[in-house]
Protein 1
Amino acid sequence: MTSPEPSDPPTPPGPRALLRLLARPLLALARALAALAAWPWRHRPPAARGLACGFAGLVLALGLLGTLFPLVLRSLLPSALDWDGAGALLARDGRPGDVVVVSPPWAERIRLEAPAALPALSQPRYAGEALAGVRRVWLVSLPDAPGFSWDPELDLLERAARSAPPLQLGALQLTRYDLSFPERPLAFLPDRLAGAVVTTGGEPCPADAAGRFRCGAAPGQGPGWSVWRAMREVEGVPRPCLVVEGPGAGEVTVELPDVPVGKVLRGHAGPLGPAWSAGGTTRLELLADGEALGAAELQPDGWRTFRLDTSRFADGTHRLQLRLSPAQPLCVEAVTLP
Amino acid sequence: MIDPLPGALRQRLAVLGAGPRRLALLWAALVFALAAALGGGPGISADEAATFSAAVPALGGGAAAPELAPLPALLARLSHAALGGLSHLHALRLPAAAAAALLAAGVAFLAHRLAGRSAALLAPGLALLAPRLLHAALTAPQDALAAALGLATVIAYRRSAAAPTALRRLQAGVATGVLFGLAVAARLDAALLLPALALHALLAPALRRRRAVNRGEPPPPPARPSAWGPHPPRTEPQHTPVEALRAVTRPEVLEAGLRGIPFALAGMVVAGPLVVALAWPWLLGAPLHPLQRPLAAVAALRGLPAGAGLAALLPHPRAWGAPALETALALPAALGLAFAAGLVHALFRLVRAVRGAPGVSDELLLLIAALAPLASAQLGLSPPGPGLRPWLLSFPFLAVLAARATVSAAHHAWPRRAGALTAALTAGLLLPSLVAAVHAWPHGGSAWGELAGGAPGAASAGRPRQEGGEAAVALLPELAARARPGARVALAGVAPAAARLYALDGRLRPDLALVERPEEADLVLAALDGRSRDAEYQAWSALQTATPAAAAFLDDVPLAFVYARPGAWR
């Protein structure tokens, strides 16, 4: 009698067998879920009632949202304490060469809180903005405010570095940016108008008590030239500039004595008031000590940049002359850079 | 007619009476009392200042602009002359309060006719409570008056069409013409009512014929002889001239002579211009060039140069959907939804009426009346005013349609508790408007709805912050308290007539002198209305400071700043 052969261990069921095993319960589950999903559709109300219920539900929901909206909005905006805190911090840590940038641009409340020595800028974008004389930018932002955009911060990040994480003051955020390559202008030409000599047709123009130069017009030629230093709006942005207004023909010369000159003279010009008429380009010539530095033909659209190489006259002070023949009121500013 | 009022409310209202007229009168009294009491709160915008300048020569501004519609200035002048005991601003704004009251009454009356008492209780709130609409009702006399008279014109037109006898139709037709003339004398672009109602007169018979075909009935006979039909019956020869005149002016004869044109339209064409000519004789003052002055008036309405000529009639379309988008952003979201639902509901009812249900003419009339001002604004034919005012004539009809849709929805959603649901929906629609109006007061013209993100979201999107310098009024008390005695004040972005009116009412301290230019001023009050800020920036140079001494805000959005020369602010 032989001992029985040991039997092979049972083989685990293969995938097909597993599938056959699970098929019925899975099918039953799928049928139950489909029936559950179809139940609301089978028992749906008539179309009119369904629409009416939907409308009523929406009205009640929007009504609740609308009633609470002022409270919700208030919670997203800074409190008076937040603004005071930002103002105190800027007063404590602000230095010459700092500016405040607000984001969103309408958040100009900081101008009441920040020290008067810190200019506040409220433009929508800063790409390509000169920021002459600025070393540090304090970005005051309201990130939770409706319509907030990261655009100003992105523009600043392209040319500045953040030295510390943003400081949260309630719903306000304060971030300090140090410009990577701050410009240190040698001179800002509009600020030198007080000592200037303005002439037209060789005749000097007297200045009034407010520092505005007025050139008398020839008989029958309408108003003459006026040149003065003012803050004016160009393309929605406040610009400190020399304002030149004239009869639309002819030329005016502004002579600025003892201006420190570096390697570059960079400036901007733009129209004041309505857009320039077609074909109304302005020619701007610059001379240093009577020698031509260069000229620019400024097109009648927007805030245009011009740049002249002044390296021949670098490292000294010179008599600069701006010769202008604008077709309509013009805002001009320029800086000399090392 | 649906009238699912809760029992308790029904008992209270029984005291007031069930008729639509009584409810309309109650609404009128309530709205007039509120508007008269609140009228001194909001500031004066540039448009309103122009009306006041024409009404009160002491406000200066040179000769009154004759190309502006005269009725608002005329009413303001009468009110100002008659009510010397009130402040100048209150007296000048009483006609606007009366117009708002008339509007509320008309809306309540029409809503009651369409959908019962519940709708009559809801509709005036929808038309007047939202901050922008309330602000327009209080401060824009030409718009509120034109909206009220436009609504009355449409009601009279409908009465004329439905009157049982020719005499009644004639009377209502004349009333339609007179009301139309008054609406045009209030705001010139109310003239769009004529083509709108003419469109209705053209389409309604066609739709009625279609309805009859859908019902399998013979086409309805023409109500009146058509223009292509047989000649009107000859009258018997009369013996005296008076008898002959009476014979040809009998209403039936006149109606037959119109050959299918409704009395109301004829009234608008004949009586309307007569009323306009009486109220606005300047329009007829150039006999050699009869179109010159009307075209100048149209150019002034649309903000075009005076010499625009026929170009003033050309459409300058806005961006597609701009009026609808502006409405959705400026109003609370629930209200915008209700207005949209009202239009959809009306369209649905029109389709159903064409298929056989009753009321095809009325549904068509309501839709045209609601949509015509929006279409006019879309095409750029209405004045280019701020906010919702260019298409304000739509809102009475939108409110009525929205109220009807709300009541109908409550009835369909929960028939057994329709009254309670109507009350809940009324609260859901009116509470956001009430809360927003209180929150924004008195800067209703600066308010924006939830979809825009409120005033901050709208400012981020570059939308206007106010209508025309009216928010500067919020800084007058602080100016009075802290300005140095004898300081010179310049107001930038504020109409000169508004500044003079503030001074006349004592809201500007008597010792403070008004000057025109920032260079001459010690204090500059600058309003931020989304337009140029050049005057404000010039004030920075003149006063040697860019730091405001005081400011007015709505949800942290600056509406006005005060800048002060050193030593001029205590």
Protein 2
Amino acid sequence: MNGLMISVNTAIITIIISFFIAIVIKLMVVILDLTSKPEPVIASEPETAADMDDESEIAAVIAISKQ
Amino acid sequence: MNLETFFSAFQGFEAMLHSTPQMVMARVGLILLGFLLIYLGKKGVLEPLLMIPMGLGMSVINASVMLFDPLGLHGGLGTLFLEAQAGAGPDSVKNAADLMYIMGIDWLQPIYTFTFSNGLIACFVFMGIGALLDVGFVMARPFLSIILALFAEAGTIFTLPIAQMFGYTAKQAAAISVVGGADGPMVLFTSLKLAPELFVPIAVVAYLYLGLAYGGYPYLIKFLVPSVKLRGIAMPADPKFGKYNSGQKMVFAVVACVILCILLPVAAPLLFSLFLGIVIRESGIKQFQDLMNGPILYGATMFLGMTLGILCEATTILDPKVLPLLLLGMLSLLLSGIGGLIGGYLCWFFTKGKVNPVIGIAGVSCVPTTAKVAQKIVQHDNPHAIIMQYALGANVMGVITTAIIAGVFCSIIK
């Protein structure tokens, strides 16, 4: 099989499957939103450094500390 | 006593006397390259998790060559580490006997044969990677993530026909072009399925370049996004990012895994490994999380890096088949980086400047390296800009699109 044809076919199939997955994700999110119970309101406690294990939050802390 | 007798007491030197000058120079060069990889890994210029064991393996294997070739495959020279060609070839009975024989001699042979050459170590690494991934970012912005990830597959798509022009078959070209997906386990898996005869050089080239991407991509970003103002665009945190609880993320992981396995069963082992890691992360089972985040991920990564370094023996690197792979691998990763940044620019344009084009590089699925590179560059130009969540979404989706492409290659190329 010619390389160019393989690339074209692969690109088309990949785009179709990828957008299909994205649509499935969107549908799942909508269904999960409709079926999930609302989160109970909890009085927020101050976050400690130990809670911040999400990289985005660590990056935020670094950014703020550099102000 | 003559010089040869003197050197015969030191088998490493004796092996050099029995090698051509080019081979000796290549071995010395690779020993020094190994030192350089260790130094750059320690400094953080290259990914230390891979470069440190790989660099040490590379230096040691080229220093450890001696007059020892039990299977007669290398003209009298060999090492006590592993024999990548043991068990290969059409004569299965003889090869099985050779393999069992060499298992009793080479200390890394069981690791290589039972985890490397069958893709098991790639699956372990993917389990560990899955245990680190927060799919909430993908669930929050699936279309932005998928567009960036698709553009970042440009290297894989465009390199395949170019590789065929170099004289490779369709299967070999596909195995080489998957390097552009920047996903080490996927490269191992695809080359085992499509081009097992090129597995060793492709794996070595892929991981070497993936380690270099951390150091090289910042320059590409600065070249293609020269405007400091553009690089510093702050993207406000999407309130949806923290919205999904672990149960919802588990549902996503399970459904996505099953759908992808139905569509691409040939990639099912890797897809299952990735999503198993994600499910374990969201399950709250701490013992399994500790197992995935610790021994499985770091054990597999260490043995992977070490074995790759051991495979960088001079006769492998100097194989004439390897030089085109070095060029094609570099081209593939370069085109993927360029494609990702083009995707970033398009998203910036169509959102009227709300999306930072730098996050396009995170579509290249070297998780989480390229997301970290994007955040570092953006933060350098605007300390208040946090784009990590968006970058991680593209990163995660990049893993999925690379898996899709690998599965498509394995399915359509016969």
Protein 3
Amino acid sequence: MTAASGESQAPLSREAAQRATARIAAFREELEALEAAGLLRLDAETLERVRAFHDARLAQWRRDFDVDASLGARRLGWGMKVASFVAALALAAAVFFLCRRFWGHLPTAAQVTLLIAGSLGSTLTSLHFAARERYSYFAKLFGLVACVCFGLNIALLGRIFNLPPAPEFFLVLSLFAALLAYACEARLLLAAAVCCLTAWLGARTGTFWGIYWLGFGERPETFFPAALCLFALSLVPHRRLPDFPPSYRVWAALCLFLPMLLLSHWGGGSLLPFAARHIEWFYQIMGFLTAAAVVALGIRRDWPETAQCGVVFFSIFLYTKFFDWCWDWMPKYLFFFLVGLTALLVLIVLRRLRAARQEQAEAPT
Amino acid sequence: MKGILQKLGILRPDGSMSVRMRRTLWFTAAALLQIAACNGVILSRVAQNRAAPDAELALSGREFRTQSGLFEDSGRFVRLRYQYICTSEETQLWYNGLFHPWLDAGKLAELGYRNLDAPKEPPFPRYPDKKVWVVLELDGPAYARYVAHHEAFHARAAAALAAEAEPGEARNRALADLDEAEKYLRKAREEESRLVLIDAGMDAAALRRQYPNRTRYAILPGRVRLGISNDKDARGKITWRFDPKVNLEPNTVFVPLPFAETFAAIDRQNTKNVRLQLAVGSRLDPWVRDLRVE
């Protein structure tokens, strides 16, 4: 991530280089507009120096990070991301089914050797492409394939040697996916790591409460420790991977709010020793309070994704309450009118908050 | 070497390594180390398990079924067939456990279900499943009691038929009862599994001390579930009771390649005249030591 105050440091990631490229393009456009309006005219020497400086940086970033220098290239870049994602999933599925198709026809020694070789080979292939930032799409693609290969490695060894299933499978897979995510700077692999970590923490929390580990999904509260853990991970400084902490915070919000939403309608799934109705009320109130607190935290700490998660879930809690209270007896046109009015009210509140923030930002220090 | 690393992009043309590349190398090295470590742990567990077997059971075709993989899965497995036996002579316990007479309140408390109040009416609390060790008995006292029960039933049916000398509805009923008793006795002696799930516990070593015969008793991982069922009496009154169930989990064992042909032959012909040597190791992980058609 470039320093917030200037461009003196070279970008340390592709995303940072892409943002810096966009800033240069915006600067050039604004400079043209100011010159056309007659408000600013740089002398030829300064203009030439600035242009040469920017051109050199753009050329270096294109060489090192394969950034998209124009709007058209950026649109193609989005297409490449989608194609890369589809290719990663398809290749991973192909490896999975290929393994299933032929593993039973091999002797045990060959099975073990091929499983380990598959994990090692795909990881080294991912490293080979990660070494060249220009081929980051391929690094991420093979990173996902490596995760599938490693998962198959562990799972099939378990089947071959008849080992009992254990939740630690998710822990080792999460750790592996996280290592590759940090190696390849891939948020897709980070998502895989987060999902596996959430599953392991949920299973272990469940066993702490005396639940068989495979049944952790039946108790939504087992996901709360994962929310705490992911939020804690987001607080770890990620100078070179600035996109990772927001991802951790979004997943933490999902692990917090989705169970709350479920328990606000299904108190019977709670671990708490109270009546289901009381538990539902508790989580309805907690849902509103927590969502509001998350919005406040996101605004205060300048975490836009956190604030947005809070707003989304506040709205969901609100509309589910409207549905519970009003749907059966209220005329439908009035119900949707009420929903629309509430949305307008939320919009007005957010506008006022935004205006207050802007005033604060513009106030002389 | 330097030239190769430069060609691979790990080193810059000037021979230095970027910060990003250093980070990538460290994380990838950690991932490779993790692959080695995880596989090492698994394979050492397997070696430890197979070095000192805990039990070895000689199963017939009655005690297992072949199971091939689904959706293009080329794996071969045997699924163990076992019974839960409860004869009518068993003591009717306070929750009337029809499948596991030994799974009484004391045993449930031992398995972690403490302070259970008898269920009165819904809604009921949900009781979590528990991971336990289960004991399988092969051709032992439980199976012998089961066969003896059917022999006694057969003897009673034969005596009832002998008592009905006159042709008529009563004699026809007695004949039908004897046919049924013969059918169940034949099934018990020749078709049904001799493998019976007789006990469960949290301490595998304690179970092994209680059941020391390693050619008759195998201790394997299982799961206990505590459900709730009801009975209705003649007046339609419903009484709720606990309905605990314990299962072997997992109950499939992989069949390695040397036995693939035998497996295929058994699968094709559905033959029961087979012998499976099932070994259970010191870590209580089972494996197929031998599989043959007799």
